[in-house]
């Protein structure tokens, strides 16, 4: 049934959220790769750091997917779609150095933050204050992660 929530056209908002969801899923698998495969003198610290990041990412994925449902659309749930839509690349390697892992995640987080800033403006212009607020919460979480990652490469 169509959601009668006062938004004329939800299609552009759903497209933005589907891209956000796809990107978060690709990021999630990349973080898991690093959690599993990291090797360092402080292995336990880094293993747990990546675990914290993917726990947060898991929650983001569920929240983004359910936001799409709140707008009355079905949420995409396959990796073919996620790979097509994602604005970041997946990690193809398993032997990445810790420094490269941190740098890659920082670059991805900054890419996501810059795109999300544009998306927040776009959903506001489309009259969707709920998604605007939702994405504003999400961008703050990504900004906090980016700060932590940046502090590890400084
Ligand atoms: Fe684990």
The global form is elongated
Tell me the name of the CATH class. Answer: Mainly Alpha
Bound molecules: fe (ii) ion
Helix and strand succession? HHHHH
Q: Name the CATH superfamily assignment.
A: Ferritin, core subunit, four-helix bundle
Number of strands: 0
Q: Give the number of domains.
A: 1
Structural class of the helices, strands and pairings?
mainly alpha
CATH fold call: Ferritin
Number of helices: 5
Low-confidence stretches: none
Integer average pLDDT: 97
Helix content: over 70%
Q: Strand count, sense and closure of the main sheet?
A: none
First and last CA, distance: 51 Å
Radius of gyration: 16 Å
Structure description:
- This protein has 154 residues and is mostly helical.
- It has one domain: Ferritin, core subunit, four-helix bundle (Ferritin, Up-down Bundle).
- It is 75% helix and 0% strand.
- The protein contains five helices and no strands.
- The relative contact order is 0.17.
- The model has no long low-confidence stretch (mean pLDDT 97).
List keywords for this structure.
single chain; 154 residues; mainly alpha; Ferritin; elongated; binds fe (ii) ion
């Amino acid at each position: 049934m169509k959601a009668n929530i006062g938004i004329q056209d939800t299609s552009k908002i759903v497209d933005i959220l589907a891209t956000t969801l796809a990107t978060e899923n690709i990021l999630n698998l990349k973080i898991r790769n690093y959690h599993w495969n990291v090797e360092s003198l402080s292995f336990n610290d880094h293993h747990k750091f990546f675990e914290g990041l993917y726990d947060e990412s898991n929650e983001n994925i569920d929240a983004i997917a359910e936001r799409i449902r709140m707008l009355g659309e079905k949420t995409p749930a396959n990796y073919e779609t996620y790979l097509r839509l994602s604005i970041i690349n997946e990690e193809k390697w398993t032997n990445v150095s810790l420094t490269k892992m941190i740098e890659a995640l920082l670059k991805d987080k900054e890419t996501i933050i810059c795109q999300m800033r544009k998306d927040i403006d776009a959903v506001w212009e489309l009259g969707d204050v709920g998604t605007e607020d939702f994405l504003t919460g999400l961008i703050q979480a990504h900004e906090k992660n980016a700060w932590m990652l940046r502090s590890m490469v400084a």
